[in-house]
Design a protein that fits this description.
Number of domains: 3
Distance between the termini: 34 Å
Number of helices: 18
Mean pLDDT: 91
Largest sheet: 6 strands, mixed
CATH architecture of the largest domain: Orthogonal Bundle
Low-confidence stretches: 6-10
InterPro entries: ATPase_NBD, GppA/Ppx_hydrolase, Ppx_GppA_C, Ppx_GppA_N, PyroPPase_GppA_Ppx
Protein name: Exopolyphosphatase
Strand order of the largest sheet: 8-7-6-9-11-10
Keywords: Hydrolase
CATH class of the largest domain: Mainly Alpha
CATH topology of the largest domain: Hypothetical protein af1432
Shape: elongated
CATH superfamily of the largest domain: Hypothetical protein af1432
Length: about 500
């Protein structure tokens, strides 16, 4: 099936969000009462998934076992929740491991709910959403910084409107592994770590400085830990300042050890704390930050509000698709005609093909809007250009697998079926694609032509189109396209009969 987060009735009383981060797994549970979310419980476990990421992209056995044991415990809490009331996402490490599908399947089995991987840009958007909902805004724009285990996200916006977002390949676990894995700290290693972080920041710095901000907020565990260490050691005032960061770095330099007990620092965060401080110090320097306030909310709260929005039919994904279609000058009238034909065909076969009509309808609407985006690049093989765009562009609200499903539909909507690139084992996606292919054929020309009464029947891999004989005679090009389609579909063992009435 598709991982489109099926919608529940707004009467749902409990929602949950789980962030499978590179350092920690964070679970948040809330009651939904009178249109408001009231946090009931928060649970965090330091799994340090990113520490087990090997050079070849695999995950070592220790990290795998820590993660699955944690998911077993979280699963006990989540199995009581209704389908669609829980959103689970993976971030940097799950974006990086080569066997992510194996991990995701095991995680879903333990949790009893779908697990998805989100892009770094989507992570930044959700972090900003979480902070914006829980932190009362001041006048003007605000900068939000989140240092995770494997990546760091920057987001700049005003109120609920996000203007800039960036995900950088540096985090507390990643920097610790790269520069301090043997536990030793020296001036040379600190300088190399700082240069590396500055290089990661360089492409983003100019845009953020040009926009400017009135308030700087830091989210997640690293920044809250830095704020606590600074306060308890009197390195700076209540908020984080550059002098406080430099005081912490001096402590490590004097000790010469990475695993340093500091007043206010928890023992479980101790092994990777220095890596996070190095990242934050580089951010302060690059963006000329004077003061940063540690916010209580982060990605998991953003997930919770995103889920609430979807349940209240304020899903951001349709507008993301619409903006992408407009960006690539898609013919909106043709897209609408294709979508209307898709819905007509789907309604006739959803039951016999055992398709979830709500999910499939939504996916086909988005595919109808996007199947032509490649035309803005080149007419020749435009479906290939379009698939690349859809899979790799930043589509707010979408997980990676959702974008891959959309890209697969765009790639396979015409010509010979791309059996090697399309996930043929996903029968629901394949059947949705067959519906899209037929809808495109019936609306091939840009001119509006009257469609006949189309009767579409399907069971297993047998399909039948019942069409008026006179209409077929009057539309020889469409007839030829349908006959070609018969040949294309036979190559993936689907049979299409064209029955003249």
């Amino acid at each position: 099936m598709f991982n489109l987060s099926r919608l529940l009735s707004p009467k749902t009383e409990q929602l949950a969000a789980l962030d499978l981060g590179s350092n920690s797994f964070h679970l948040i549970i809330a009651d939904w009462q009178d249109g408001e979310l009231k946090i009931r419980d928060k649970v965090k476990e330091m799994v340090r998934l990113g520490w087990g990421l090997q050079d070849d992209g695999s995950l070592d056995a220790a990290a795998w076992n820590r993660a699955q044991a944690c998911l077993d415990r979280f699963g006990e809490r989540l199995r009581e929740f209704k389908p669609g009331s829980v959103r689970v996402v993976g971030t940097k490490t799950l974006r990086s491991i080569i066997d992510s599908e194996v991990f995701l399947q095991a995680a879903q089995q333990r949790l009893g709910h779908p697990v998805e991987v989100i892009s770094g840009e989507e992570e930044a958007r959700l972090i900003y959403l979480g902070v914006a909902h829980y932190q009362a805004p001041t006048n003007g724009p605000r900068l939000v910084v989140d240092i995770g285990g494997g990546s760091t996200e920057l987001a700049l916006g005003e109120g609920m409107e996000l203007k800039l977002k960036e995900s950088l390949d540096m985090g507390c676990v990643a920097i610790t592994k790269l520069f301090f894995k043997n536990g030793r700290v020296s001036k040379n290693r600190l300088e190399k770590a700082n240069v590396y972080c500055s290089q990661q920041l360089f492409p983003a710095v100019e845009d953020y400085l040009d926009h400017g901000w009135q308030e700087c907020l830091g989210a997640s565990g690293t920044i809250k830990a830095v704020a606590k260490v600074c306060a308890e050691n009197q390195f700076c005032d209540a908020d984080i300042q550059l002098a406080g960061l430099e005081a912490i770095l001096n402590c490590y330099l004097e000790a010469g050890e990475c695993n340093l007990p500091l007043k206010g620092l928890s023992e479980e965060r101790q092994p990777v704390f220095l890596g996070g401080v190095v990242v934050l110090h580089a951010i302060f320097q690059a963006l000329n930050i004077d003061t940063m306030h540690a916010a209580e909310s982060a990605l998991r709260e953003g997930l919770l509000y995103e889920l609430k929005g979807r349940l209240e039919h304020t899903d951001i994904r349709p507008s993301s698709v619409q903006r992408l279609a407009e960006r690539y000058h898609v013919d909106s009238q043709l897209s609408e005609r294709v979508d209307n034909t898709c819905q007509l065909l789907l309604k006739q076969v959803a039951e016999t093909w055992d398709l979830d009509e709500l999910e499939t309808s939504k996916l086909l609407t988005w595919a109808s809007l996007l199947f032509l985006v490649g035309l803005d690049v080149a007419h020749n093989d435009y479906h290939k250009h379009g698939a690349y765009i859809v899979e790799n562009v930043d589509l707010a609200g979408f997980s990676r697998i959702e974008q891959q499903h959309l890209a697969a539909l765009v790639l396979a909507h015409r010509k010979r079926f791309p059996s090697k690139q399309f996930p043929l084992d996903n029968s629901a996606l394949l059947k949705a694609c067959l519906v899209l292919r037929l809808a495109v054929i019936f609306n091939r020309g840009k001119r509006r032509q009257a469609l006949p009464e189309i009767q579409f029947r399907a069971a297993e891999q047998q399909m039948s189109l019942l069409l008026e004989q006179q209409w077929l005679q009057n539309n020889p090009l469409t007839r030829a396209d349908l006959e070609n389609e018969q040949q294309y579909l036979s190559q993936i063992d689907y049979n299409l009969d064209i029955i003249e009435l």
